[in-house]
Amino acid sequence: QILDRGAAGTQSELLDALPYPGETEPRLSGTFSQAWNLAEFIRNFYDDYLGIRIDREARIATWAPRIPDSLGSVDARINFEGQGVQLHAAGRGSAQTLRIASDEFTDTLRVRFSVRLAPGATHDVECLLPPRSVLELRVTNGMPVVLCNGAPAPWVESVRRTPPPPPLAKD
User: Fold this and answer.
1) Parallel/antiparallel/unpaired status of strands 60-63 and 52-55
2) What does the pLDDT read at residue 104?
3) Closest CA to 134 of 150, 112, 145, 113
């Protein structure tokens, strides 16, 4: 509904339970743009699909995207202490790119990328994002490489790699 029904970019207050006879979709009703419904959708997108979590006290951003294939690549902007941070995610599995840019940022931020390589298999990489820089994690053939402003990142730590679960035994 938010992307292609009613007033694009909004979510209606109500949705009829069933379509009327002769119609294929339930009707939108009530207020055409319900603020708290839309806010919950946006929170869900940032937290669950985009997977960005910021611990302000520890000054660490953890990024674990779980973006549905149907969305393709995603660009977003988040606010951290009044400063904009740009995010870009593209690809899946063994070929993906995650980019975080701190055009407005004046302090160094610790970033933890958590990439899903296959169902049940993840790789966590932690690095520093200097002020006004671009940090990019590229996964090619399942191997992550971190670049800072186009060059190998100066400080990178591979935190943990979780292998995929073993196949089920056949009887």
Assistant:
1) antiparallel
2) 81
3) 150
- Of 78, 77, 43, 65, nearest to 137 by C-alpha is 65
How many whole angstroms separate alpha carbon 17 and alpha carbon 51?
31
d(CA 87, CA 127): 16
Decide: 113 and 87 in contact? Cβ < 8 Å: no
What whole-number distance in Å separates Cα of residue 105 and Cα of residue 20? Answer: 52
Among residues 100, 53, 92, the alpha carbon closest in space to that of 73 is found at 92
Q: Which pTM does this prediction carry? A: 0.74
Q: Tell me the pLDDT band of 14, cut-offs 50, 70 and 90.
A: confident
**Token pair listed for 101:** 């840019």
The alpha carbon of residue 94 and the mean position of all alpha carbons in its chain are separated, in whole angstroms, by 17
Assigned token pair, 136 = 């990019």
Q: What is the pLDDT of residues 17-27, one digit of tens each?
A: 888 999 998 88
pLDDT of residue 76: 92
